[in-house]
Amino acid sequence: MEDKRRRARVQGAWAGCAKGQAIAQPATPAKGHLYQRTGQTWTNQEHHLSDKQFVFREPQQVVRSAPEPRVIDKEGVYEISLSPTGISRVRLYPGFVDSKEADWVLEQLCQDIPWKQRTGIREDVTYQQPRLTAWYGELPYTYSRITMEPNPHWHPVLRTLKNQIEENTGHPFNSLLCNLYRNEKDSVDWHSDDEPSLGSCPIIASLSLGATRTFEMRKKPPPEENGDYTYVERVKIPLDHGTLLIMEGATQADWQHRVPKEYHSREPRINLTFRTVYPAPPGVRW
């Protein structure tokens, strides 16, 4: 009897436990609640952080560099630019006058030409031109506010050179501006031979005698550059003893040229620039 009561108590205890107590179950997280996985920080199940991160970068600036000058030192015809104005063209003829003849011509012209240092005017400031000049032609010529008076008395050597150049190029010339660069300190600054008296698209024939000097050219900048020549095209032409250079087409309209000072010692150089000058229309003064 006692054994039956003991078994009943035990069975009742197990039954009470099954009926009165809830069995522990793993908790299921409610949707939208925070949870954490092993090795991860707390995140929101519905609002994951993006893997992409915003990185601020400053706007990139366009880097401009000045182009390297083009060097022309071989005989030939070179079209250096094309624009609405036209084609800018140069022709180079090294040794147009052979060395021995050029030596004799240089000596004669240094002695016989009436060289003179003239006073220029730039921005209402007067200055002594850093070279000597002379003019030949039946008409006057004005440039840089300097007027060269007519001089129809051509030196025989100059007339012979003029005829040779005309025969070889097919271009006639009626005037000549002579320049004597006495040493490395003499020069001519940036300019164009675009005076009204030369007409449109003038042809300039430049004959060099004596020491080699570098003839530099730079293209005129477009209007949006506001006169800034930093990034324009450039050309360098070493002009040796007896070399003939022809500038034609739109070269004077679209380009400037100069002969800069040199850092090293230079012997004298004569440059003869043949051109055609036109008379001024009635009532007009060039």
Topology order in helix (H) and strand (E) letters: HEEEHEEEEEHEEEEEEHEE
Number of DSSP E strands: 16
Strand content: 25-35%
**CA distance, first residue to last residue:** 150 Å
In round numbers, the mean pLDDT is 87
Order of adjacent strands in the largest pleated sheet: 2-3-14-11-16-9-6
Discrete helix count: 4
List unreliable stretches of 5+ residues: 13-24, 30-36
The helix content is: 10-25%
Q: Describe the sheet with the most strands.
A: 7 strands, antiparallel
Q: Which class of secondary structure composition applies to the elements?
A: alpha+beta
Shape: globular
Spatial extent as radius of gyration: 44 Å
Q: Quaternary arrangement of the chains shown?
A: single chain
Detailed description of the structure:
This protein has 286 residues and is of the alpha+beta class. The chain is 18% helix and 30% strand. The protein contains 4 helices and 16 strands. The protein has helices spanning 2-20, 99-112, 156-169, 251-254; strands at residues 70-71, 76-83, 86-93, 119-122, 125-128, 132-137, 141-143, 146-148, 175-181, 188-191, 204-210, 213-219, 234-239, 244-249, 255-259, 269-275. The strands form 4 sheets. Strands 2-3-14-11-16-9-6 form a 7-stranded antiparallel sheet. The chain has a 5-stranded mixed sheet with strand order 1-13-12-15-10. Strands 4-5 form a two-stranded antiparallel ribbon. The longest helix is centred in the first third of the chain and has 19 residues, at 2-20. It is globular and about 90 Å long.
